[in-house]
From TrEMBL:
InterPro entries: Syndetin_C, VPS50, VPS54_N. Keywords: Coiled coil, Protein transport, Signal, Transport. The gene is vps50. One of its GO terms (molecular function) is SNARE binding. Residues 1-25 form the signal peptide. This is VPS50 EARP/GARPII complex subunit. It comes from Takifugu rubripes. Residues 53-344 form the Vacuolar protein sorting-associated protein 54 N-terminal domain. Residues 723-957 form the Syndetin C-terminal domain. GO terms for biological process: endocytic recycling; protein transport; retrograde transport, endosome to Golgi. GO terms for cellular component: cytosol; EARP complex. Residues 215-242 form a coiled coil. It comes from the Eukaryota.
Length: 964
């Protein structure tokens, strides 16, 4: 095995490289060159040599990096022995010598092969030199070809290709340059508010950028364009929010087109509604905040951080109406913008859906339009609800019970106009606003009405019942409080709308949104409404024609021209206007007038007092409130009726209450009037503390009642010289009648305001109360008539007359002349009174009727006192009565003479037979028991027996019994 290994030259070389260094371990161990040569030269037995080689350790034949020095040193024993070391060294030397010799032998053996190989290398070198020459020639040929063909032709083609590529690159670079400058143009477009153009440009740039996305600079530009697009969307959102307050068609068209380009039409609509909601909140907050801070001055309160509801409670009374007006104006702007937005979409949809060449609609646009339409319609109610809630918070934030009436009416007017806006905006009945203003109105009206009733009581108790001088053509429509009636065709229209709609019939048909579509504001109208012309109803000098009055009564008294100034004999001229009246009143005309008609002075001006005028004004104010706020119409009408009730009750209490009515048997107070007076006393008049001891009415009920009024001490009703205060009685009674007439004229208007369920109340009020006003004339003027003529004196005079005479008399009795003189004196007094107060014909008729009735009844009573009477005496009675009638008819134009038959029938009854008398007693119950008994005793007593007389007296007693 080892022999085989040594045969390989490489192995031998390796062995040599190992053994040679081993010999160098130490200088002492290493053999010299001579020794080696000796060893090689010494003939060694091949077998022994082979054994020596075989004795070499196996490790020396390894190919690994072998450190033989380290190996030999490690083999040394712990204790060194020189002899052993030398022996071991010699062994190693022999091994080295054997290897060297073996190697030398092998080299010699391979010498021929080496020479042969060297020859081959030389031949190869020669071939290589020849190849180099061939290559050099080839390269030279290639250089010629390159210069002659490739450089001239292919190079030209290559340059052309490069030029083409560079042209494309230049185009791309120009596009990139344009894209890089786009942001500047986009900024300009946004400043110009050209949102569609900006979005279009941005989208085109994005499309272009995606084409050149392989350039690194473009990838950055793409993200920048995306940011710009988002920025445009933000600015677009801001632009959209601006349309909520001031809608501009061009602006909104651009915004909508921009959203369409973005494909976000539905999103835009959602955003728009959010902006409108926000606009309403911000608007009302800023308006109220402005007024609160203005009125608060330098207060440290942080109003800005307050909730809107709390902020509303800080509004002062002075700034309440201006703030409310500005609030409604601002909300109107928002609602008008929404209305115009809807209008824009309707017109836009009509344009898109109208047939035309080349028009087509994709599914998305139809869906978008449908969505927008539904969203807008739904938004109407939402926006109006927001408006209502904001205004409700404002209304309820302040207690209005202490407001002045005119201020409260303005508030109602503004809210009424706002509710009208709501109805036209979305068909809403504005329940939220109605409830809030109704609550405030009821609260206000309770306080207001209570104060007015107390005020009315004070007026009545201080009223001296003097005539209030008004023009002859006075009409309640001339009063400021009733102006609203002349301005409205329908009671459902608010006063401010009436002012707006009075400009023409054409405008009445237009809605507020049509009227104020482009300019103006419906909430500016009430200011103009408030500043109306002042009323002119009072006569400048108290009476319109005092001179006429003098003329009339000088003519009555003197019946001559001597005392009448010449200028007054001519047709009189109206002092107010300077014009002659339509119908001239000359002296002849005046003389021909009926003397019982005391209408000629004061040019027939209405009779009313300051208190009446105040009640009429109050009614006008109440009706204004009712007209604007229908939900409390019944409460208001009920209060209006209480004003009339209290006035009527006061006039009755002051001038008509008398215990003698019952005994008069004239039926002065009708059952209807008595029922009315009892009702008023129970429902409205507060009983004095001493009168209702032990009775505790409800607190609320007591609050609604008013103490009974007391007549002013300045009014004297017991002086015979003034006919027992006839002037005051006429003014009081006729002012009540005038008030009733005004109520009658207002009935149809009140009826339209009244809820259907409550209309019976109004009808009953008119039929049971208003219509009874004129019935008060009877009891009131009866008191004057009962005292104006001395009926007792007449009875005494009649008692002194002898009626059992035996011859027919041609001369009437003195008592007739005395009675007629009393009537003449009464007529003169009436004329005196009428110098101060016009006495209307119905009043003079009632007075004359009462006096004549009382005179006739006194005559019958006087005839019933007769103890003895003959037929001639009956004839004398008839003569006296006929004389009385004849003279009386010259004093009065009252026809027929009242109770004429009452006297004549009684006188004629003296001639009746027994049977006729019995029937007479049954049929004529108007005569008293005494008067009937006198007929039986005096007249029939002479020619009927006692039994028959007793029978007739029993019949009289039966008739009288039910009365008792």
């Amino acid at each position: 095995h080892r022999r085989n290994k040594l045969k390989s030259p490489s192995k031998l070389c390796l062995l040599l490289s190992i053994f040679i260094p081993v010999g160098l371990l130490t200088d002492t161990l290493a053999p010299s060159q001579e020794e080696l040569r000796e060893l090689r030269e010494q003939p060694i037995d091949p077998q022994a040599e082979q054994e020596i080689i075989d004795s070499i350790e196996e490790v020396y034949f390894s190919n690994d990096a072998f450190d033989m020095v380290q190996h030999e040193l490690e083999k040394l024993p712990p204790e060194l022995n020189l002899q052993e070391l030398e022996e071991y060294r010699d062994k190693l030397k022999r091994q080295q010598a054997a290897v060297s010799k073996k190697v030398a032998d092998l080299i010699l053996e391979k010498q021929p092969a080496y020479v042969k190989e060297l020859e081959r290398v030389t031949a190869l070198q020669t071939n290589l030199q020849l190849a180099a020459v061939i290559c050099t020639n080839a390269r030279r040929q290639l250089g010629v070809a390159k210069e002659g063909f490739t450089g001239a032709s292919l190079g030209l083609l290559a340059n052309q290709r490069r030029r083409h590529l560079l042209t494309g690159l230049l185009k791309s670079l120009r596009t990139i340059k344009t894209l890089q400058r786009t942001d500047v143009r986009l900024s300009e477009m946004l400043e110009e508010e050209d949102y569609p153009g900006a979005i279009q440009l941005c989208l085109e740039c994005q499309k272009a950028a995606s084409t050149f996305k392989h350039y690194s600079c473009i990838s950055e530009l793409n993200s920048k364009l995306q940011d710009t697009l988002e920025q445009i969307e933000e600015q677009l959102d801001v632009a959209l929010s601006k349309t909520c307050k001031h809608f501009d068609v061009a602006h909104y068209t651009k915004v909508q087109l921009a959203y369409t380009l973005l494909g976000k039409t539905q999103t835009a609509m959602d955003q728009l509604h959010m902006h409108f909601t926000q606009a309403i909140h911000n608007t009302v907050f800023q308006v109220v905040l402005g007024y609160v801070e203005l009125c608060a001055g330098n207060a440290d309160t942080k109003f800005q951080k307050m909730q809107y509801k709390d902020l509303c409670t800080h509004i002062t009374l002075d700034s309440y109406i201006p703030c409310l007006t500005d609030l409604c104006k601002a909300l109107w702007e928002v609602m008008l913008s929404y209305h115009r937005t809807m209008q824009w979409h309707e017109e836009h949809d009509n344009m898109e859906t109208s047939p035309g060449p080349g028009k087509w609609h994709d599914g998305d646009s139809v869906v978008d339009r449908s969505y927008v339409k539904k969203k807008l319609e739904h938004g109407l109610t939402r926006i109006w609800q927001d408006v209502q809630l904001k205004v409700k918070a404002y209304i309820l934030g302040t207690d209005m019970s202490n407001f002045k009436y005119d201020d409260f009416i303005v508030v109602l007017d503004v809210i009424s106009r706002l509710m009208q806006v709501g109805e036209e905006f979305c068909g809403s009945k504005s329940e939220v606003l109605q409830e809030s203003i109704k609550w405030q109105s009821v609260n206000y009206f309770k306080h207001y009405h209570r104060a007015r009733l107390e005020e009315l009581r004070m007026f009545l108790e201080n009223e001296t019942w003097e005539l209030c001088p008004v023009k002859s053509n006075f009409n309640i429509a001339q009063l400021h409080e009733f102006k609203f009636m002349g301005q409205c065709r329908s009671p459902s229209v608010s006063p401010s709308r009436q002012a707006a709609s009075s400009t023409g019939l054409a405008q009445e048909e237009l809605s507020l949104f049509q009227l104020y579509l482009l300019e103006g504001n419906p909430f500016e109208m009430h200011i103009e409404h408030k500043e109306e012309e002042t009323e002119d109803v009072l006569a400048s000098n108290g009476y319109e024609s005092d001179e006429l009055e003098k003329c009339v009564y000088q003519d009555y008294d003197n019946d001559s021209d001597s005392d009448v100034p010449e200028e007054l004999k001519q047709d009189y001229v109206d002092e107010q206007t300077g014009d002659a009246p339509l119908k001239s009143v000359s002296r002849e005309t005046i003389r021909s007038k009926k003397k019982s008609d005391y209408n000629l002075n004061k040019a027939n001006a209405p009779i009313l007092t300051n208190t009446t005028l105040n009640v009429i004004r109050l009614v006008g104010k109440y009706m204004q409130m009712m007209n604007i706020l229908k939900p409390i119409a019944f409460d208001v009408i009920h209060c209006v009726s209480q004003l009339f009730d209290y006035y009527l009750y006061a006039v009755y209490t002051f001038f008509g209450r008398n215990d003698m009515y019952e005994s008069s048997s004239l039926g002065l107070i009708s059952s209807r009037l008595r029922t009315t007076l009892n009702r008023i006393q129970e429902s409205l008049i507060e009983v004095a503390a001493g009168e209702n001891a032990g009775v505790h009415g409800a607190v609320e009920e007591r609050k609604e009642k008013v103490p009974s009024p007391h007549l002013s001490q300045l009014v004297v009703l017991t002086n015979s010289g003034t006919l027992y205060g006839l002037a005051q009685r006429v003014v009081a009674t006729e002012s009540l009648v005038f008030l009733a007439e005004q109520f009658e004229s207002l009935q149809s208007h009140l009826d339209t305001m009244m809820p259907a369920a409550k209309k019976p109340f109004l009808q009953q009020f008119y039929s049971q109360t208003v219509s009874t006003a004129s019935e008060l004339r009877k009891p009131i003027y009866w008191i004057v008539a009962a005292r104006a003529i001395d009926y007792e004196q007449m009875l005494l005079l009649m008692a002194g007359v002898k009626w059992d005479i035996r011859e027919i008399m041609s001369q009437h009795n003195v008592y007739v002349d005395v009675l007629l003189k009393e009537f003449e004196q009464f007529n003169k007094r009436l004329a005196d009174v009428s110098r101060h107060v016009r006495i209307p014909l119905p009043v003079s008729n009632v007075l004359w009727e009462h006096c004549i009735r009382l005179a006739n009844r006194t005559l019958v009573e006087g005839y019933a006192n007769v103890k003895k009477c003959s037929n001639e005496g009956r004839a004398l009675m008839q003569l006296d009565f006929q004389q009385f009638l004849m003279k009386l008819e010259k004093l009065t134009d009252l026809r027929p003479i009242p109770d004429k038959e009452f006297v004549e029938t009684y006188i004629k009854a003296y001639y009746l037979t027994e049977n006729d008398m019995e029937q007479f007693i049954k049929n004529h119950r108007e005569y008293s028991m005494k008067q009937l008994a006198n007929l039986v005793n005096v007249c029939l007593g002479s020619h009927i027996n006692k039994k028959a007389r007793q029978k007739l007296l029993a019949a009289i007693d039966d008739i009288d019994r039910p009365k008792r």
